[in-house]
Q: What sequence folds into this?
């Protein structure tokens, strides 16, 4: 396990800028629970290798607010990559505490609420949320659409219902999974009607 982590660390350290952007975009389009940690590690490597100014470009290139990237980087720096890390929400709350690693080791199931309470008991009332300042609707909108398109494409690939693995492994799909699939289909049908209504004014205006 340690060797695997070390290999990943070396791979990240050796990434050039384009590779780091590509990996970050792949992560953001996935459902990986470690996204904040891995984006933070990538941002840390980008800054160390290319400087602070490149971090802003990195945030723009992956369609994420700079303050979010900076926040994830600072949390990632506070927690050693070679050791087990808590949930990112917990790590944010404990970041400023000198004994954060020991706290997590002694209570690996600590929740973000418990971590926040402990932080306040230690006299730290700082917010873990970043202030990105006023939104820029046009630029933010383009980034959101680009990110959403990538996520939609990823989701479509994951739920191809006809043929392939769904039919091949249907006997292995238990009832909870079937119920979840039906729930997904119902949600898609509802979304279909919603999208038609959403863009109807646009269609009428164009006519």
A:
């Amino acid at each position: 396990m340690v060797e695997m982590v070390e290999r990943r660390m070396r791979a990240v350290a050796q990434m050039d800028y384009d590779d780091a952007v590509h990996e970050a975009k792949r992560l953001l389009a996935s459902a990986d629970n470690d996204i904040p940690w891995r984006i933070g590690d990538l941002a840390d490597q980008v800054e160390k290798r290319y400087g602070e100014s490149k971090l802003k470009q990195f945030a723009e290139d992956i369609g994420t607010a700079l303050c979010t990237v900076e926040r994830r980087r600072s949390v990632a720096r506070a927690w050693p990559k070679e050791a087990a890390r808590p949930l990112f929400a917990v790590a944010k709350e404990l970041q400023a505490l000198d004994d954060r690693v020991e706290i997590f080791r002694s209570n690996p199931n600590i929740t973000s609420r418990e971590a926040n309470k402990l932080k306040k008991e230690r006299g730290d009332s700082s917010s873990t949320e970043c202030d990105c300042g006023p939104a820029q609707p046009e630029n933010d909108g383009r980034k959101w659409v680009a990110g959403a398109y990538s996520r939609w494409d990823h989701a479509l690939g994951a739920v191809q219902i006809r043929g392939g693995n769904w039919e091949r492994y249907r006997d292995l799909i238990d009832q909870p999974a079937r119920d979840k699939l039906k729930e997904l289909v119902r949600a898609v049908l509802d979304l279909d009607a919603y999208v038609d209504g959403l863009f109807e004014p646009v269609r009428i205006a164009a006519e």
In short: DSSP finds eleven helices and no strands in the chain. The first helix runs from residue 2 to 13.
